[in-house]
Amino acid sequence: MIKDGKILLGKSGEEDIYIYPKMANRHGMIAGATGTGKTVTLKVMAESFSNLGVPVFLADVKGDIAPMCMAGMDNENVTSRVESMGLKEAGFEYSAFPVNFWDVYGEKGMPLRTTISEMGPLLLSRIMGLNDTQSDVLTVVFKIADDEELVLTDTKDLKAMLAYVGEKSAEYGPKYGNIAQATINAIVRSVVAIESEGADLFFGEPALGVTDWLCTDEEGRGMVQILDCQKLILHPKMYSTFLLWMLSELFEVLPEVGDLDKPRIVFFFDEAHMLFESASKALLEKIEQVVKLIRSKGVGIYFITQNPSDIPDGVLAQLGNKVQHALRVYTPKEQKAVKAAAMGFRVNPEFDTYTMLQELGTGKALVSVIDEEGIPTIVKHVKICPPQSSMGSLSESERLSNINNSILYEKYITPVDNDSAYEFLTRREAEVPESAVKEEEALTLTEKKRKEIEARKKATSKVARDAAKSTASTIGREVGKSVGNAIGGSFGKKVGGNLGATLGRGLVGTLFGGK
Predict the structure, then answer these.
(1) CA atoms of 500 and 493, how far apart (whole Å)
(2) How far is residue 56's CA from residue 229's CA, in Å, rounded to a whole number?
(3) Measured over all CA atoms, what is the biggest interatomic distance in the chain, rounded to whole angstroms?
(4) Which of 51, 243, 313, 505 is at a distance of 20 to 30 A from 389, taking alpha carbons?
C-alpha cells in the first residue's frame, strides 16, 4: 500500500519500512523457503507500484497471483494483521487492480508471441540446448538471413532457412566459415523438439510490443501484466529464456531517461533460479550487463527465488532492495547458504542475522532497502503488510471475461502469417523448375525449327537435283545422239549413248558437289 507517497512494505515494531519509489529501479529480491510468504510480499509490492501509477509485469507460476483483478475480503489472518499493524488508519482498503492476462499457449490469457528474429540466436540456442558449435552455426544462419533480407518469423521460417543454408553450404563457406550438414541437421532436430513443447505457438505474429505495457488505467493506476506460466514452467529453459527475451526487448526499445521519481515499469521474475541454470558464460554476461544498465532506462527488476545463492554474484550485487524470508537448514550445504545470505545484509546490532533467518515466521522477513540517500539500510525484522487484492482463487469465467474486455484483445488474439523467409524460399524453389521447363521448351522449339529448315533445304535440293538430272540427261542424250549419228552404225549408237549418260552425270556433279 502507499503511505506518504512511498511503498509501505511492513513494520518493524512501530517503525514503518518503506521502499522509496525513486530507488525502486535499483532492483531487488524476494527470497525464502517454500511457504514462508514470498507470494504475499510479491503481491503487496506489485499492488503498491500499480497504485503509484507504475506498470508491472508478473510471471504467475502457480496461478495464485491471478486474483489480483479482484478485491480482497476480510478473513481472520488479514483482519488481525490490519488491526495489529494499524493499517486502517494508514488508509488500507480492499481493492481490485487493472490486469491483463497473457499466456504463450493462448489458453489462460491473450497469446504472447515473439518472432525468431527478435529472440536472436543466443537465447534461441539456450531454448534448444545447442552446444557451442551448433550455436555458432545458428548465429551464421541468422547473419545470412540478415544479409539477404530474409525475415525469420516462426519455426517454419527457421527450418526453411536452415535447409537453404545447408544446400548452399559450399557457396557460403568461404565468406561465413565451414557449415557442416551434420550440424544443420542437429539444429533442425532441435527446432522440431521445441515445436513439440509449443514453440510453434509463441513464435509468430503479431509479436508483443512491450511498449503496450507502459500504460495506466483510467484511474491512473499502472496496468498489471500477468503471464500465466503454469504450463510454461514445465519447460524450464523455454520459461526462463522467454522472460530474458522480454527483459532484453525492454532494454533495446526504451530510451535512456536517467533517474526518475519512480520507475517506468517493474518486472517480477518468479523462480529466478531457472534464469541462470545451465546458462552459458556469454548469456550470463549479457544478463549481468542488462541488469546493470537497464536501471538508467527506468526499469526495476525483482527476482523471486528460494535462496539468494540461486542468483549469480554479479547480478546479486545489483539488487539493492532485499526482502529475505525464512531459510531452512537441513544440510551443511544449506547452512553455508544461510550464512552467505546473512552476510549480504548490513549488520543490525539488535539481533544475529544468521540465527534470525532460521527463526522467521510466515509473513515476516528481514528487509534492507536503498534509502533516499542511495545507501543500503541496516537489516530490519519486518512484519509484511497484507495484500489489498483477493487471496482466493479466480474462476475460469472471471478470467475469460477479463481477457475479452482487454483493450489489447483485438490486437493480439488472432495470429497472422505474414510473408517471410519460408514463403520467399518456397517461391524461389518453385521458380527454378519453371525456368528450366521454359528453357527446355525454348531449346525444343529451336531444334524443331532447325529441323524444319533442313527438311526444306533437302526438299529444295532434291527438286533442283531432279530438275538438273532431267536437263543434263536431255543434253547428254542430244549430244550422244549427234556423236552416234556422226560415227554411224550400231557401234556409233552405243558410243553416243555412253557419252550422253556420262556427260549428264558430270553436269549434275558439278552443280551439287557430287551428291
Answers:
(1) 10
(2) 16
(3) 161
(4) 243
With 60 as the cut, is the pLDDT of residue 515 above it? no
What does pLDDT average to over the chain?
A: 87
CA-based end-to-end distance of the chain:
113
Kindly compute the dihedral angle of the four CA atoms of residues 346, 347, 349, 354, in this order, to the nearest 10 degrees. Answer: 140
Contacts of 50 (CB under 8 A, 6+ apart): 56, 97, 98, 221, 222, 223, 224
* C-alpha cell at position 396: 475460469
Q: Answer whether 103's CB lies under 8 Å from 131's CB.
A: no
**Percent above pLDDT 70 for the chain:** 84
pLDDT at 514 over 50: no
- Pull the grid cell for residue 404: 475479452
Residue 120 backbone class (left: φ over 0; alpha: ψ -120 to 50; beta: rest): left
Alpha-carbon span 269 to 275, nearest angstrom: 9
Task: Say whether the peptide bond before residue 55 is cis (omega within 30 degrees of 0).
Answer: no
Q: For residue 213, which of 250, 238, 245 has the smallest C-alpha distance?
A: 250
Instruction: Report residue 468 as a C-alpha cell.
Output: 538438273
Ranges 2-11, 78-87, 506-515: which has the least confidence = 506-515
| Strand-pair category, 6-12 with 15-19 | antiparallel
pLDDT number for residue 510: 46
Q: Select the more confidently predicted residue: 441 or 198.
A: 198
Mapping DSSP onto H, E and C, the string for 64-93 reads: CCHHHHCECCCCHHHHHHHHHCCCCCCCCC
d(CA 136, CA 25): 35
Model pLDDT for residues 383-398, shown as the tens digit of each residue: 999 999 999 899 999 9
- Domain spanning 2-102+205-412 has what CATH number? 3.40.50.300
Q: Is 514 left (phi over 0), alpha (psi -120 to 50) or beta?
A: left
Note the pLDDT of residue 346. Answer: 94
Specify whether the CB–CB gap between 222 and 100 falls below 8 A.
Answer: no
DSSP conformation letters of 271-328: STHHHHTT--HHHHHHHHHHHHHGGGGTEEEEEEES-GGGS-HHHHTT--EEEE----
Assess contact for 104 and 239: CB atoms under 8 A: no
Q: Are strands 321-324 and 364-368 parallel, antiparallel or unpaired?
A: antiparallel
